[in-house]
Write a structure and sequence with these properties.
13-stranded antiparallel β-sheet; mainly beta; globular
């Protein structure tokens, strides 16, 4: 069991890697709903890391889609990650993955990896040049994620800057950068940086008071048109709710060069207490 407390130092990385299959989450992964549970972004990034490693063996270097089905809360502690190749062809491969912890299956994943090649594009294509984020990171004020005070957690793992709107007060655009490594001694890939950030779309665009309501996502689907570059990832996110206790959070994803893709989350909305 994780023993991070307010008296212990903030961990130096989000995960300790014990083997290709076994990793251990530190307090830097702590999310907003329960102090013993992870924010889903970091473990999704660790699964992305494992899928990237398998895809490279097939010569496939672009993760075009990553979908997470979140079955149970992910505890802070040891996890086992399993990746299976379902089909590998010349230009694309499909992968399935699972996270196990405390003897239970916690999450299931599917992913599409693609072969990259140089392809000059003609000028004047509809929708091109691709859109840019509302503001650059350098022009966006620092704005800390408003949860997790007192314990090491996700708000310490990432640096956030407001590119538009205000977090947890409706539609907003927020830049994310890892303030600590995902894994000690490793530089995370752009895909891993996207995964850490993209699961926050429902939080940064929340339209309900987090002290009175929960709006937990049961899944996350990320679609990327190209490889993310640089340290910064921007979510331009909004939340849409229905009067049946369900909702949808959707995010446009950017790096400093422009649009890279989209992410969606299905929400279960409940009144607290």
């Amino acid at each position: 069991m994780n023993t991070d407390t307010p008296e212990t130092p903030t961990p130096s990385a989000a995960y300790r890697v014990h083997s290709p299959r076994e990793v251990e989450a530190t307090g830097l992964t702590r999310g907003p709903w329960d102090p013993g549970q992870q924010h889903a972004g970091p473990p999704i990034a660790m699964v992305c890391r494992a899928i990237e490693a398998v895809a490279r063996e097939h010569g496939l270097t672009h993760i075009g889609r990553l979908t997470a089905n979140l079955l149970r809360p992910l505890p802070i502690g040891k996890l086992e990650i399993e990746v299976v190749t379902e089909y590998a062809g010349r230009n694309a491969a499909h992968y399935a993955a699972r996270i196990w912890g405390h003897g239970k299956e916690l999450a299931r994943f599917t992913a599409l990896a693609q072969r990259e090649s140089d392809l000059p594009l003609p000028e004047g294509l509809d929708g091109h040049p691709l859109p840019q984020a509302p503001r650059a990171p350098a022009d966006s004020p620092v704005q800390r994620i408003p949860f997790g005070q007192g314990l090491p957690g996700y708000a310490d793992l990432v640096e956030t800057r407001a590119a538009g709107g205000r977090m947890f007060q409706g539609r907003s655009a927020v830049w994310f950068r890892l303030a600590a490594p995902l894994v000690e001694g490793e530089t995370p890939s752009g895909y891993q940086r996207v995964a850490v950030a993209a699961d926050s779309g429902n939080g940064v665009s929340a339209v309900l008071d987090i002290t009175r309501y929960s709006f937990v996502n049961a899944d996350l689907s990320i679609h990327l048109l190209r490889r993310p570059v640089g340290e910064w990832i921007c979510l331009d996110a909004r939340t849409l709710l229905a009067p049946n206790g369900c909702g949808l959070a959707e995010s446009q994803l950017f790096d400093e060069a422009g649009l890279i893709g989209r992410a969606t989350q299905s929400l279960a909305v409940r009144a607290r207490g």
